[in-house]
Amino acid sequence: MEKYNELNTLNIPYLSSSEKEVSNFRLKDESLILSFKDFNLKTVKNVSVYLKNIKTRELLFAPSKASNNSLVINLKDLNKLCTDYEYSIVISLENELNKILYFPVNKSINLSQELFTNSSSDNLKWYLRLTNNGKLRLSTIVVFPNKNS
Questions:
Q1: What's the domain of life for this entry (predicted)?
Q2: How far apart are CA 25 and CA 33, in angstroms?
Q3: What is the model's pTM?
Q4: pLDDT interval class at 90 (50, 70, 90)
Q5: Cα 36–Cα 87–Cα 85 angle in degrees, nearest 5
Q6: Burial class (CB in 10 A: 0-12, 13-18, 19+), 54
Q7: In the chain, where are the structural domains located?
Q8: Which of 16, 27, 45, 86 might form a disulfide with 115, Cβ 3.0–4.6 angstroms?
């Protein structure tokens, strides 16, 4: 019981999460560009992006750059790590008071959108799809060369 009392529960930050609507998204080269509606990232102290494995819940840090209402996520270092499973995008925003997790969603009419892009490796492609409820899912696909052509 003493160990529990040693913990000051008031110092444990409150962590909340919610969905944040994306007005536009692009998968270009080895970057995912997300533009948000009515959301200014300049007012936030710290922005971190993680890719969360849907099956194992493993988190991979993804370098990113925030400006105004858009976020550019660099996927280059994650090329070979995302081939077995799908990943959801988790955005962590921190200010002086708390840390909030956001899950980007697209609630547009066309929810069956799928995007592919090439990576620096000739045999890998990034794949982005939208689920029925508008959540973004990322993975890489290994492309095997056709030896017959």
A1: Bacteria
A2: 5
A3: 0.77
A4: very high
A5: 160
A6: middle
A7: 15-142
A8: 27
Output the six-digit token pair for 70. 């858009």
Structure tokens at 65: 């750059």
Q: Which of 138, 101, 144, 124 is nearest to 25 (CA)?
A: 138
Interatomic CA distance for residues 27 and 87, integer angstroms: 15
Cα separation, 86 vs 4, whole angstroms: 38
User: How wide is the angle at C-alpha 38 spanned by C-alphas 32 and 48, nearest 5°?
Assistant: 45
User: Which two three-digit tokens encode residue 37?
Assistant: 């509606």
Q: Within 10 Å of residue 27's Cβ, how many Cβ atoms?
A: 20
The pLDDT score that the predictor gives to residue 130 is 85
Q: Which two tokens stand for residue 51?
A: 């890719």
15-142: CATH class: mainly beta
| Cα 92 from Cα 87, distance rounded (Å) | 16
| Alpha carbon distance 82, 143 (integer Å) | 14
Alpha-carbon distance of 75 to 9, in angstroms, equals: 36
Pairing of strands 99-105, 15-28: parallel
